Every structure is written in structure tokens, then in C-alpha cells.
Amino acid sequence: MKYLFAVFLSLLLWSCSTAKKSQTTSSLYTNEQEWSIKIKDGWLTAKTLSLGLYTTSSRKNGLAETTFIKDPKDAFNFYLTGNGEHLLVQTMTTNAIAFSNRDLPPYLSGLPGNTTLHYTLINGTKNEPLNRWEMILKPSHYLELNENKPVGVLRSAGTDIRITAHNHFGKVNSYENVCYEFQYRRQPVAAVIPGNTPRAWVSKEIGTELAKTLAAAIAALL
After folding, report:
1. What is the spatial distance between Cα 83 and Cα 113, in angstroms, rounded to a whole number?
2. DSSP strand pairing (187-193 vs 73-82)
3. pTM (2 decimals)?
4. What distance in Å separates the CA atoms of residue 53 and residue 153, rounded to the nearest whole number?
5. Phi then psi dihedrals of residue 37, to 5 deg
6. Which of 14, 33, 149, 211 could bridge 144 with an S-S bond, Cβ 3.0-4.6 Å?
């Protein structure tokens, strides 16, 4: 009887843990730092987004410029405007083998060659036009989401921003409300939850130029 009770109790605790909402405790996720997101998708107009001070143009299939990716899949591009900027954002998927000759963080460099990666190029801002950025993301398992593990990088020639992913706004052991978190100098500076009810946060402590690039990266994920 005691054995059966122990088994029942362990199953009950496991069940509760999988249904539990585990909110993040980072100081990034505050009302003051959350950006308003609106999606416009009318019958006669193309889908566009507004987030914070920025809006996107409607997306166009294909790439606006050639890249080192020889066979990009699901490629599209759009412009992010606002706050004095007009940034070209291009996004696509490709296999990890395309990055075999490029220097990558450890959590991306050891992937099988046929792993699908999401790749985004972001033009430099008006004040830093030559500082082009790239974002590389890999798929994540729900166990990695439980622990906010690294899934990608947003980087330029002189700056690396690690991207992690977590499910702390959803159920543990699930892909519910996946949140991508941007970490600069080990501190969360931005985050976005794509999907039907998108949310985004950007730290007020970062510089204007970096905030513009993060806005473009968030728009690409949305």
C-alpha cells in the first residue's frame, strides 16, 4: 500500500509540474519595457506589423540582395521604418552545412549538416551604415526551453548577442509561448514571443542604435 501511494504521489507531482506556469524573474519583462505590437492584415491590404516606434512594409518573397547562401529556402524581405530608419531585413532558411566555413558559437558549430537553420540579414542603421548584422537560429527541444538554453546569435563585426529560448510564459515540457531572449554582456536586453498573441520587450538601458537592430530582429521573428 505504501508503495502504491508513493507511485501515485510521484505521478501527481510530475503531472502538476508539466501543467505549471513558470514565469521568468528577469527584470527585462516589465510593463514599462514591453512594446505594443499591432498586426494589420486586411482583405485588400498586405500584412504589416507595428512594434513600438517601428512599422514594417509588406513582405516580398525572395531576397533583395544576393548572399553567401547558395540555395536559400522560404526567403522573403521587408523594410523596417521608424525613428529615422529604413532598414532592409532579409530572412531565409538553409542547412547548417552552409556555415561549415564560418566561425560559429559552440552551440551552433557542432550541428549535423542537414539541420535547418533560420538566417536573417539586417542592414546597418543610418548612423552605422556599414555595421551589418546577421541572426542565426537553430531549432530547440522543449527540454532546452525549460532551461533557457542558447539557440542562436545576433552579431555584427564587433558585437555578439546570444539568443536563448524558453517556455517560461507557458507550460514546462512544452513548446507553448516560446520566447526568444537576446542577451548582451550576459544580461537580457530584449525578448519576443511570436505567434497569435505576440509580445516583445526591449530594455531601456541599451543604446539607440542597438535598440534599432533589436527591433529589426524582433520583426523578423514576428
Report:
1. 40
2. unpaired
3. 0.87
4. 24
5. -125, 130
6. 149
